[in-house]
Design goal:
Shape: globular
Strand content: 15-25%
Distance between the termini: 30 Å
Order of helices and strands: HEEHEEH
Structural class: alpha+beta
Number of strands: 4
Length: about 110
Amino acid sequence: MRVAHTTRALKATEIVANLAKLEGWTLSGDGDSLAIEKPFGFANYYQTVAFVNAVAFIAHSEDHHPELIVQPRQCLVRWRTHDVHGISPADFACAKRVDDLQPETIAS
């Protein structure tokens, strides 16, 4: 299911309200680099790469692509909307889809 993209950045109050609906996601950066991010932990490299491939499938289907920092047992997923220089509803919708893949996270 493709998320309807928006052409505007969310306001601070909208970002806070949306963050409250997602477990483990935090704000990162500021200005044009403001993003929401969450680390996901895995038992081994194979599981990490399988997760990355699942996130890539979501990103492709939504035409909305996150920044990924991949380590052998962890992947940090970071969403922001470059076109609006901030965070949009699409970032939160995609974060929710990623959460639906695997509920367990590790502390940052």
